[in-house]
Amino acid sequence: MLFDRDGTLIRDVPYNGDPNRVEPMPGALEALGRLRRADVPVAVVTNQSGVAKGLVSPDEMDQVNAKVEELLGPFDAWAICVHDDADGCTCRKPAPGLVIRAAAVLDVSPRDCVVVGDIGRDMEAARAAGARGILVPTALTLPEEIEHAPEVADDLIDVVDRVLTDAEGPVPAGARISAPWARTMGWSRW
Ligand SMILES: [Mg+2]
Ligand SMILES: [Zn+2]
């Protein structure tokens, strides 16, 4: 499962380079814990144009990301775009590059990924990569972004409820091939 960072995993503090200002979104820690216990890989797909703009140094960004992992636990992959709109890169959401890159690191198809984000760009990136998109709106999410979202959840707990459904029973050792969550998420290679 691929998460946007700002406004999704942590509170959106525009162009934040200060790890002390990192604050998890409600339910983030619990949601991630449930996914990890269910053996669902978790990754971050994040636009960080503050780096291209010179507002956040790469080192500050690294410190903020390290704080995110300190507060929310380790992620299996980080895919970060440090460009801005004018750079014409293939990774800045709504382009699909970050989703494709994170899926490659996790060694799964983008089609077997769920992208969770708070704005339309996240949902566009998911759609462009062939992934399932789930929008978790905040006060900053535009009404038309909610209207056009393929799926809307109340919060991160609701997201996990939707994805895991009844797949959270204990998985016996060696039973990974038939793990319930694998069927739920359509991870065909498993
Ligand atoms: Mg966001
Ligand atoms: Zn980029």
TrEMBL record:
GO cellular component, one term: cytoplasm
Reported cofactor(s): Mg(2+); Zn(2+)
Entry coiled-coil feature ranges: none
Location(s) in or outside the cell: Cytoplasm
Enzyme Commission number(s) of this protein: 3.1.3.-
Contributes to substrate recognition (site feature) positions: R92
Annotated positions for site Stabilizes the phosphoryl group: T46, K93
Gene Ontology MF term list: metal ion binding; phosphatase activity
Keywords: Carbohydrate metabolism, Cytoplasm, Hydrolase, Magnesium, Metal-binding, Zinc
Enzyme class: hydrolase
Active site per the UniProt annotation: D4, D6
Name of protein: D,D-heptose 1,7-bisphosphate phosphatase
Organism of derivation: Nonomuraea turkmeniaca
